[in-house]
Amino acid sequence: MTALSASDLTKVIGKRTIVDGASFDLRPGEVFGFLGPNGAGKTTTIRMLVGLIKPTRGTVTVCGFSLRSQFEKAMRCIGCIVENPDLYRFMTGRENLEHFTRMLGVKASEIERVAALVNLSHRLDQRVGTYSLGMRQRLGIAQAMLGSPRVLILDEPANGLDPAGIREIRELLRSLAVDHGLAVFVSSHLLAEIELTADRVAIIHKGRILRTGTVGELISSQRAMELRVDDPERAAAIVRDLGGTVTIANDLLLLPVEQSETPSLLAALTRGGIAVYYARPRVQTLEEMFLEATGGESVD
């Protein structure tokens, strides 16, 4: 079952292809991370997902409704924040939410529910101008949750937050997905945070989706062994003589081999007079995998 499906999503402006054949699904109960370097097409993709711009080609289906032919029904299933939450700082949190309930035609009773979801009930009657950035982000998410959407789309929700605020947003998104069954789509440049938050990740580069999968699948796609030895240079020469590939980093040997190949390798090093202090598996971080996939380009 999918909550949102994008198929062959493409946007061409003039002679430039901004997004080229992007396809992915969002499932209920998961956080989906959307990562890409500056200019990769992330924001354009989000704008197509929420109906702000029309795709040149491709389709978006939300809760079984076509965004093209059943726009209103599809959009009732989506809550979103594109860029920063649009809040009135001179008004209280409650007054802001009341304003949006009137715009959306949602019952006022929804306010208490969404405030409780984002843990803002105790500050709801204070002016938004007194809120921290993290609280304003949570109020924005509460606004997006009005009407009980099944898909939540957020553009850089932790941008500019301090570590405590980032953790609050992470825990909130995990709760919305796991405890409330939402499909949460998060565009972010905080790679380490996405590694902690997301269940699945898509990497977009120059408008094309390069890799999609669970965080575990992506970071385990390139396995290596890490060895600490008494003489890294001589040990590396032995490995290369055996036809292997090796990199020396911080006096450690990094070898792209499976664990099953390690015993014979260690035996060869020992025969060559190398003292091996330890050997352990090394799995790429999401950041390393991202940089490899995008040719070393940084995120926004």
Q: What report would you give on this structure?
A:
It is built from eleven helices and 14 strands. It has 300 residues and is of the alpha/beta class. The protein has a six-stranded mixed beta sheet with strand order 6-7-8-3-9-10, sandwiched between helices. It has a four-stranded antiparallel beta sheet with strand order 2-1-4-5. A four-stranded antiparallel beta sheet has the order 12-13-11-14, covered by helices on one side. A hairpin with a 2-residue loop joins β9 and β10. The chain is elongated and about 80 Å long.
**What is the CATH class designation of the largest domain?**
Alpha Beta
Instruction: List the helices and strands in order.
Output: EEEHEEHEHHHEHEHEEHEHEEHEH
Percent strand equals: 25-35%
CATH superfamily of the largest domain: P-loop containing nucleotide triphosphate hydrolases
